[in-house]
Amino acid sequence: MKNILPKITWAVTLFCISCNDFLDEQPTGTLSSTSNLTSADAALAFANSAYVNTSVFNSLTSGWGSVTPLLLEYMTGKVSSENSQSNFKEFQELTVSSRSPYIEEWWRGCYAGIANCNLALQKLPEFNQVDPQLISRYQGEVLFMRAMYYFYLVRIFGDVPKIKTSQVELNELFVHRSPIKEIYDEIIIPDLLAAEKTALPLKDLTGRTSLSAVKTLLADVYLTYAGYPVKGGDQYYAESAKRSLEVLSHYTLFDKYEDLWKPENNNKGEFIFQIQFSLNKSSNQMVNIPLPSRSGMSAFNLEYGSMIPTKEFVESYREGDIRNDEKQFFFRTYKGNKSKFSPGAPELTFMDFKGYYIYKFFDSYAIDVAGQSGLNWTIYRLPDVMLMYAEAQSHADGAPNDASFAALNAVRYRAGLSPFTNSDLVAFTAAVWDERYFELCYENKMWFDMIRTRKIRDDISGQYVNFIGYTTKWGKTYSNTQLLFPIPLREMQTNPKLVQNTGY
Fold first, then answer.
1. Domains held by the chain: number
2. N or C end: fewer C-beta atoms under 10 angstroms in the chain?
3. pLDDT for 13
């Protein structure tokens, strides 16, 4: 089980990240379990270690044009690929195996992050000579990150090994899987409740964790806990609504959708928590991944075409929805890049790609000039929280209140849609789910919504139907097997105490 454990020596190289530039990493040396823990810089280094593995949320995997977010998009049936080397075929055929590089990268990255968090949570209380408020803030950041790593793991894999402390003995290397509910009850929820009580700032514009980010994640956790597979009940809808409502007044929607893909807006406006990228340091690979394959439209070395929206999904947007206009959430035309075409070539003026492509991550400077992007990858933004609140409150109380209508309709208003006024719970829920589909598409939200609701929106009818038994556009039918991904083969071979998920 070597992929989920810190080195037994506990020696970890950590980094001090500047407040002015979250990616301006400067080595502070090697810290171990015997280090003299008196320096504020050392405490910061432990806190920063919790963020090192956030790359798992958006990083390259083995395979040409393959990145980790594709795992959570390919299985939805709402996306295709022009890149045969992206392993899309096994998702299309619903034959994903434990050998998938996406599977291994998510498991390894999350558990590596958890290992760093466990060590940081062990060592931070020992900094007796550092400002207690500062230590409290750092503990809040680490608790948030550990909860988030585990939240992704249980939704992707189901039951997973429960590791809360640094492992230093060989006999600790082999760990059984613990039930999903136990992971929620003993790690995810307690970590977030504890983080709520720390000295975190309400907001943070540098990319670090804020109290608002904690409450947002807790709202998402409670909403998920209320649904499948835990089915916690209405009290968790109420807890979700409480947390999301506490966040709503502190953020504002951008006036225009194009503000979402401007790097200068990173960590601002409606963004609550993002994974940090920066030019010349760590480029966001999701900028060129969805571009038309080998089209020559960008300054990137290649356009991969690894994530292409299905025609059926794009055309399921309602008439008048601005998000479906050209160069809002999608595009069909652009111009060729001068580095790819000879002077005077007609492609330099206009190219028609004869299909739909994703525009939500369109960093124009990166595409036209730089060939690398500092656009952040978003984990949570305001519309997500608005829609979480509307769904959770209406289910907790049995009907939507004025605040839920306001939240839903704010998202609709920006899209150019008329207000929704039907207070019937079933109709209101469908309207909220619609906005989650249309507003948050291709942001790694749709798959998790499908498995917590056990419903999928049929693009042709616009109706929500049972996930189990639904046949995709490729003629493949979802079964209980697809509710979870397989445990990586390497982990199964290394740890004899692991049991594979049913169907794999």
1. 3
2. C
3. 40
